[in-house]
Structures are given as C-alpha cells and as structure tokens.
C-alpha cells in the first residue's frame, strides 16, 4: 500500500506541475509516461469497494479512512476526477434552500479550505465570495429567506443594494436589479484537484486506488453485498459504495438484485473565454443571476459562465453506450439565451474572445435533491450520486455523512431529505426520469415558492376515485407518485394560472380551503387519503406481537379492535416512522404510515423482523382506498349507512371495526381522523371504493357533506399541534422532545428499540422541545406567509427553526410548529430545555428577514375547538400526515 | 354551395377599364403615390399592377377574375422603382396572431396512420394550405388514398375565369383516375353492385379540409358520367394490367370530354344546367401526383408545378422538377401548338406569351371557348340560360379562331422512382412559383421538415470570435428558427415565406402583415392565389424497397 501511495502521489504531483495535464485527462486513452498500465493487481478481498473516482468517491474514501476504516479499494473506470468532476465549474456555494444541503456545503467549504495544507496538493482554493442577484422583488424575498438561515448558522451573509453590487464587481450592469445577497466566504476551487487531494490523503491513510478498472456488477447473497466483478477480476467485500455519477443508475441495475437509483443526465453548457485585456482579478466574487439563469466566475483572467436553461437536453436515456462524455458537441444555438443573459449582465464582455463552450453532462434527480444512503433491498450497498450540478459544493459534506452512516450506522445529521429510500421502483422508469429531469433542471434557477408541485411524471398512482374527484374540481399534488387532492375549486370559480399563482404571500386558494375547513368543523367532509402506506403483519403464533412490541415504542398488546398511535424508533429514540397500528386479531396487525414511508419502513422492518416463515408482512397499500370522514356529522352519516351502532358508547375513539357500509361488506372503519377532529377513517377494498364513496356522498347530502383536500387537513392538524413525520419529526426527534411520553411504554418493563435513550432523556431532560407558535402581529393579507425553516428567536436570541406552518381558520392566525433549543449565552453549549424556559420567553419568527411576534405554546387550545365533543374522544396524539 | 356571381359584377366590369383610360395621363410619381397609399409593395407586385392596366383594354372582361387570364410577369418591371415609405399614411396593420390566423385558416395536415408502430407506406403524410387572392379563391386542392388499388393521389388545381371548373375537376378527377387504375374484376364488381342496388365498394378515402367542399347537387350527374366511363372500360376489357401513365392520361382526357359533353347536352334542372355551363366555360390547370411505394407519377396539365426536394449527402437541399410548365416559356409546348395548326396561323397562335393572345396556360380543363367550334359555342350560349347569354365573356370569341380545338387537357406524365434521398414533393399552383425560386422552396421546406437541428452547428474551433459577434450570429439564427416554429404545417411555412420574404430571404413581418391587409379587390393585383401540398416521404420504407429490389 505504501508503494501504491508513492506512485499515486508522484503521479498527482507530476500532473499538477505539467501544464499539458489538462489535455491528457480529457482523452483517457492517452497514457502518461509515469502511469504504466495497472502496476498493482487488485486485492482478492477488502472491506469496502468504492466505485467512482470523482469528487464523491474520493470524498467517501477520505472520510472513511479518516474514521478509521482502512481496508478500502477505490475503483475508477478511467482516470481519477475525469468524469463530471473534471468539467465541474468549481464553485463552492453555501446559498442553499434545504438546510441539510446548506450544512453539507458549509462543511465542504471548510474542508477544502484546509485541504491543500493537509495534503500538499494544490486545490486552487480561493475565497472569492458570491453574489446572488435579484431582478424581482420575489427573488429578493427568496434570497432573504436563504440569508436568514445562513445567518443563524453563523455563515456571514448580507443583503446588499445594487450600488454595493457595483462596488464589489466592476463589470456588472445593475440597472435591472432590485438587490442581491452577498456571501463573502463562498469559494472557488479546481474540482479535479480537490478530488486528487482527497484521493492523496485517502491513499496516505491506506486506501488503495485503481484507475482504469470498471465494475461490471455487484454480487449479492441473501440480500447482502458479497463482492464486485471488475474487468480485472473479482474482489470480495462487505460494503459497496456506488459513486458512479451519471452511470450510477446503470450500475445499480447491473447486479442480480437491482438497486434503483433514480437519476438522469442532462447536457450542461458553460463558456470559457480568453483573459480580458486587463485580466480579471482572481478574487472577484462569483455572480449568480438566477433570473437570467446564469452563473459567472472569474477564470484565468477571463470568465467562466454557464447556466440552467429552460429547455434542457437530457441524454444517456438508453444508457451509456451511445455517446462518450468526451465526444459531446458544443451547441451554441442552445446556449444563446444564456449568452444573451450574460451580455445583459456584463455588457462590457462583448469584445471578449471565446475560448471554448464546454458540454459537461450533469445528473439530476426527480426532486432536485441528491441521493445518498443504503439500498433498501441490498444491505451493504451504499449510494452517493445525483448531485444536481452541485457536486463540488456538496462533495465534502456528503462524503462525510455517508462515511458516518457506514461506520456508525447513522449519519450525524438528519439526511432523510436525501435518503435513497425516499424513492422506490416507481421512480425508476427511464421515461419518467427523462421527463422529470427536464423539469428539474430549469428549476435550479426558478423561484422556489411554497407549495410547489412537479408537473411532469404525474398521474402515476391514483385512487379509484380519481376521475370522480377530478370532475368535481379537484386540484392535485403528488406524493411518492400518488395523486392527492389539495382542494376543490367550486364550480364557476377560477384560480390563477400555474405561473401566476407562485407567491410568498396569501395564495389564491385561501377562501376555498377556508370553507372546506369550516365544513370539517361544522358538518362533515370527505378526504381521499388512499396514498397512505399500509402493511399487514401477521403470524401463526405470538411472533407478530412480540416482534412489534420490540420494534415499536407504544404498547401494542391491546384488546382486538383497538388502534394505537406509536413511533417506530431507532436506538437513539428518534422517530424512524410514526404510525397507527390497529390490532385486527390476536395475531394480526394493520399498520398505517405516511405515504413516503413505503420503502423506508418496509426495509427497516424487513431488516429487523426475525427470519421466520410463520411471520408474514404484506404491503397492502394498493388494496385499500382510504376515505377520511371528518366532522361532527360524520357519525350521523355513518350511522345511516350501516346498521351497526357507532355512538361513542359503542365506538369510542381509537377503535377499529370491520363493518358494512351500504352494500359493501368488510370495510375497516377506524375512529381516527389524523386531525384531532371527530370522525372516521374508512379503509375500503378498492373494488368497493366507488360504491362507498357514492353512498357516503348521497347520504351525507342532508348533513351538508362536501369534498375536501389535504390543505384543509393540514390547517386542521397544525392548529391542533399535531406533528408530521418527515416534516416535524425525524430520526433525530424523540417522543420526549415532542410531548409524547404517553405514547411510550417506558414503565411496562418491556424492552424495545430506543428504550435506553428515552430513559436517559427522561432522567436528564430534553435538549430541544417541539413548540407551537401563534403569530401575533402578522397581517395575513399583506405580510409574507411563513413556510418552514424560519428561524425562531427567543428574547432576541436564535433558538431553533420552524418545521411547518399553516393558517388556522379557527384562530384566524398563522400557526408555526418548530423546535426550541437552549444555547448557553456565553459558550453556546446546548442546555436542557425546560417547560419554564419555553414559557418564559418573548418569541419572534423571522420570515425573510422580517420578525413577527409569536406566542409559544406547549399544548393545543382544546377548548376553542369543542363543538359537539364526546367525552373521551379527544385524540391525544398527533402524528405525521402530510 | 357553389359560388354564384353576384349582382355587383357588372359594376366592376364598368369600373375596371377606367384606369386603362387614365393610365397615359398618370405620371409616374402620381402613380407611385397612389400605390403607396394602397400599400408598400415590392416592385414585382407593382408591375403586376401595371401589367394589369396594360392589358385591361380587353373590354370583354366582365369580372375581375378574368384577370387571371393575364398573368403578371416579371419582365414588365420598368415602370416604378420608387418606394415611398415616408408618404405612407399610418394605417392599421395585422398583428402577428392575426397574420397567423389568416395564414392558418386553410391549413390541413394528414399523417399516414401507423400499424404496429410502423408506417409501411412510402408517404409519411402531407401538409397542405392555400391563401386566397381572388375572392372567392379560384384554386382547389385534393388528396385521397386509393382503396381498391394501392397508392395515394394528390393534386392542385388552378382555376381561371371563375372557380367552377377547378371545383369540378377537384371533385371528379381522382375518381376518373382511380377507375382507370381498377382491374377488370373490380370494375365488374362495382357495376354489379350499382346494378343491384348494393352498397358500393369505397373507391377513395378523401383527406379534406372542412373548407374543401363537394357539390351535392351535381353528384348524381357526375356519378352517371363516371359510371358510363367504367362501363366503357368494362366493355373494352383489354385484359392487360393497367399502366399508371396511361391511366392518368385517359382519366384526364375523359373527364375533360365529359365536362364538354355535359355542357353540350345540358340538364333539365336549371341550376345544374347553369353549373355545367359555368364549368365548361371556365378553365383549370391540374397537377396531380400518384405515389405507390417507390413509384411516383406526376401528371400535369397547365402551369402548376411539381418539384422534388432532394437532400444531398452534405445535408444541403436541391430541387428536381417533375413537371414542365405548359405555357409560352416552354419551347416544346409552343412547338406542339404550332404543329397542331396550319402554318397560316403561326403568328396569331401565341401572342404576348398567351395562347391566341389570351390564355396563359397552354393546356387546361374546361375552357370550351378554346375547344369548341364557333357554331357550337354560339348554339350553346344562345340556348343556354339568360345569365349565360348576358355574359359578355361567354359570347366573346377569341380572335383568329380558325381551327379549334386550340387547347387540350391531356397531361404530360413524368415517372420518377423514389430514392432515399428524395425527402419531399411540393405541388403548387403558379402563385407560389411566381414569387419563389424552386431552389429556395427546396431549402425552406427541407430545413423546416428536418427541424432546426440540421441548421449547420456552429463550432468556434480555432477561430477568433468575440462574445458579441457570437451573440449577433446566434440571434440571427434564432430569428430564422422561430419563424419555422411558428408553423406546424410545411405549406403554411412556405406561404409565409412566399408572401413575406424580404430581400434577404427571411420573413419580414411588416411586409407579411401589409400583404395580408390588402382589401379583397386589391389583393389580386399583388399576388395570385397560392395552393401548396407538401408530401413527406418515408426514407426508411423507400430505402427498404430499394434494398429488396437489389
């Protein structure tokens, strides 16, 4: 290994010193004089094989080796950093919308800054800062929201005027600007050199690096990685890391057990110019002009400028064998709009001479967030890919989180938004990906507004009632491929066009949802909630109960016909899932989880349930249509449709009964609504769905029944302080931190996952607390609406961020939910959060830089909501239903 | 639905000669002022105005449509050169959407349906469109698939002295061709079906724009003539397989003969009687394509034109003529006419590039004034309805009319075996060819059909190019592309160029708008009716056929 390191290091040094290196790596077939072909043979066995020698692969190798794993082989089909990494524009920017992405970028920036010192490899790191321009007020709001989150993370950042922009950059035309955001610590690097530096450090730590070695497929036995086949022989291994960039999808599908990695490449163009007459200073800030869809950085005295056009060109849909990256053509006609935007932004560049238009494909994912984590189907198969053209910004942080995940079993931050398991096989159709990435790539520069829905790849999974609801004015959103109703537009009422409806303020559907909420409160509404993930777990003996008692935190040994709200916790007591479980019989359970838990929850349970043929788990999501009857009159409607008594005495809250509704038999009726309102969930075998729906609507007429959508549901659950998994709750949140101790069987003397951590918390107290905020001086009509991710200030000091928000039509106020932490004023150390700490503060919520007073509450206003309450039907729990 | 001459026509016929008398009195500058108030107009179109004046000494023109006989030609362009922008009064011009709605009003597209995801026909489909200059338009178009034999028929018909003849030919000619192509057994089967009142085998599947109408009133009459034709074909049964070229020639001649006979015999129904006379006394040229696999036949009578678009190996476009114009510019045609008449008439046969000094096309359907004997003409007109009798034009006998017929409908048929590089066929009336060179037509349609991507990509290579220069170049290319994207129909795209092209060969919206804003009465002076069919070929199928043949 030592010899290997020397060879590699000398190789790297030689390359950096030699100016011809640029061309050498562009053509992988040319052999450098020092790198004789394959001097070192592959080992027969190793712990980890990493496939891909770009920024991702080298970063994972670097971090794994730093964390003490040394038995690692990194395989690269061509030369190190010769793929997308080679062509990357090298901008390290922390201006990100999603907080986990922001954290990754921040870490990367700090890592790259000291990398040259650590490894001795020149990385070209230059702290230039970046300026994001706003041509519209809406864009400025968007930038202010980012600035708020950067500031509370301690990353310097300010909103500046156009005049200040001109002072920071001499070439910019500021006449059409309304403002900008300046992030002084953003940097430029040579991405290939960063990758080489990481490889150098990794190999110094013992990682073996083999270039010109292609992985043909990954061997799997009993659902575990056992080794890889390469064109140079086999390697046995326990872990495989797929960092193959745009080839990750294909590589994932090459094994016996396919691993779905939904990403698709698009062509991406940037321009290189010769130096200006007076060469540009190398510390000039990078310019991002999202309204012009371009970025501009200084490059060797000239500029490098690319962008994200409205009409992207997807490629490699049918696989790699059509075109090689090196042969991609420049397409000037395609680049024209971006060139126009560039010359509009910097008119003085007209006389600047073109050097090259670079075509470098980038891979994009269906939701514009990168993909990391372990495969749900193959243990030991990890993935890090799909960087949506921000590979260099995320590279360091993403590699670190993945390494932690592999070594510790979990990363140090909540990475659910990036988890591979948020996708299933349903997102891996090439046609779907091709269409979706054509929408995603332009989104890079589009305004990110609340409640935005993808328009492509829709109507994939639908309820049997889809057409009926659609005909009644349903407007749809999509979750995990499933169409769900947002709200119903009443006949004769028109909403704005999609583009015009984008707003940070009060949306056009405000009154529509208001009337749906009112109907839920006063009469009865039907919401189709068929998208929920539904599993049935049963056994011949007590295996099901025993296993579930261990895997879930609440006591499931309840009488048959009871429904239990419970968390599925990890060892640290954090929520891996939050669900409702109905005990159908002594030996079988019906489990309802959030829609996007379909893959994650399945994998989690599969990996932990005993391998016992007497214990079966089945995904029955597709078998049932779920209708939620919400409202005080729901009981009347249901009474008339079934002759079974359903008064509170016979059918108390949190009960489940199989009964007939209309002509249809075998409908599972549960007295829960996921909102805290009275009502029922009906789980209907799909062939009865239309019948039951028609019966309910006909019978409900005299009780004022109407259709409602998820926006109404959301408003109802938030004003009731119900937390959502995936939005409010995550793997780093425990029941103790959100006031749900009563959902945990701590005192029952039964062992369950996460118990130790919870007992510890119970003793020591919690370090964050889920809190509800009611905005006080917020004008719903005129002020910016909260969304999520807004910083919370207590007595003027930052204490946490909101996780969700909604307008409460009952309180006539905005309600935000979020976590409050307690940092020591001097040391910044996290302290225990007590009830007094929460109650004794003055709170403000920062929405795009503007602070609004807020009242903090730890319990919902139950009295406000009572209309026709039954004595014990208060649903004491809440849980995720986005 | 057949347009009937309106009562205001005599008014027009009075008005028309007036400028001719004034003409010598108007000085150039005044003329240009008059014209410029009318519209900004390309010199070519000005000369059409002048030629119109120059020839309007024919008092016999009872309606402005008669002007169609006097085709404006390029060589009269010495009158006006001044283009007076400054004095052009501000007037309302059409916006781009309005222009588009005019251009697209008559567009039609047909895609040959696919079976099992494959189109096995050598034709992918066709686009067609027409832009009127006359009101109503005198051009007609037809397209149909032969159902009892293989192949597809497409044709454009340019009427003159009214649209009646073009209308009749557009309805009837394809039936005559289809019948001529039918094998003996099928003819017998059809005749037996008619005889016993059974349902007829469908012969043609038409591909019509809603504006392409068929005359309901005459259908019985037309059917009877057609039936007589196939009965004769049955009787004549030669037993030989039908030759397409022969079938086309026979069909053309037979239809023209039927038109002539129907007018001589007349019809007890007064409406029909008047209709058949109008058909016979007006005229129409025809350019028809029959495509069957790799076999392409073009039958042409008159001065419409068929042109093949060929893509060369380097991707560029060239044009191959598949028809010869039958007019004075065609030496062979002049020769033919002279051969058919005594030497004594040689001088009077072709005057001012017109047949007998009157007619531009040297071959046409109808136009019995150039076919019948003087006696026959007089007899028919006198015994005909009053409307006919009152009509100066029908009574007028061409000068030097000694040895009729002077005109024939017999087509010239050209055969072409399609090759993979033959990408499309353009059939168009002379309204297009007057304004555009065939090479430009080939390029514009070719670039349109292959899309923008075939615009030669730009590569900087080692050249010194600045961002500004590149930007200018790209903007210009973009303008060209956007005009392509505006149209979903190749024929519409071609019309846009034909009417709106500026000196640089790109569409000038202002010019297009002005041309289309012309009032009905003036439009004809600046342009002719344009009718275009663009047939797109399926190179894969053609290539496969070729390989099979090898």
From TrEMBL, chain A:
Pfam families: DAO, FAO_M, GCV_T, GCV_T_C
Main subcellular localisation: mitochondrion
Entry-linked InterPro entries: FAD-dep_OxRdtase, FAD/NAD-bd_sf, FAO_M, GcvT/YgfZ/DmdA, GcvT/YgfZ_C, GcvT_C, GCVT_N, Rhodanese-like_dom
Residue stretches spanning the membrane: none
Rhodanese domain mapped to chain residues: 48-91
Compartments, record wording: Mitochondrion matrix
Keyword terms of this UniProt record: Mitochondrion, Transit peptide
Mitochondrion as UniProt keyword: yes
Domain of life: Eukaryota
GO CC terms: mitochondrial matrix
Quaternary structure and interacting proteins, as annotated: Heterodimer of a catalytic (PDP1) and a regulatory (PDPR) subunit.
Role played: Decreases the sensitivity of PDP1 to magnesium ions, and this inhibition is reversed by the polyamine spermine.
Family: Belongs to the GcvT family.
Name this protein carries in UniProt: Pyruvate dehydrogenase phosphatase regulatory subunit, mitochondrial
Organism: Leptosomus discolor (Madagascar cuckoo roller)
Lineage: Eukaryota, Metazoa, Chordata, Craniata, Vertebrata
Automatic annotation (TrEMBL), chain B:
MF GO annotations: [pyruvate dehydrogenase (acetyl-transferring)]-phosphatase activity; metal ion binding
EC number per UniProt: 3.1.3.43
GO terms for cellular component: mitochondrion
PROSITE patterns reported in the protein's UniProt record: PPM_1 (PS01032), PPM_2 (PS51746)
InterPro entries: PP2C (IPR015655), PP2C_BS (IPR000222), PPM-type-like_dom_sf (IPR036457), PPM-type_phosphatase-like_dom (IPR001932)
Coiled coil regions, renumbered to chain: none
Keywords annotated in UniProt: Acetylation, Calcium, Hydrolase, Magnesium, Metal-binding, Mitochondrion, Protein phosphatase, Transit peptide
One Pfam family this sequence matches: PP2C
Co-factor requirement: Mn(2+); Mg(2+)
Localisation: Mitochondrion
SMART domains, per database record: PP2Cc
SUPFAM superfamilies, per database record: PP2C-like
Catalytic activity: O-phospho-L-seryl-[pyruvate dehydrogenase E1 alpha subunit] + H2O = L-seryl-[pyruvate dehydrogenase E1 alpha subunit] + phosphate
Superkingdom of the source species: Eukaryota
Domain PPM-type phosphatase span(s) in chain numbering: 123-537
Protein family (similarity comment): Belongs to the PP2C family.
Function: Mitochondrial enzyme that catalyzes the dephosphorylation and concomitant reactivation of the alpha subunit of the E1 component of the pyruvate dehydrogenase complex (PDC), thereby stimulating the conversion of pyruvate into acetyl-CoA.
Subunit: Heterodimer of a catalytic (PDP1) and a regulatory (PDPR) subunit.
Stated name of the protein: [Pyruvate dehydrogenase [acetyl-transferring]]-phosphatase 1, mitochondrial
Organism for this UniProt entry: Leptosomus discolor
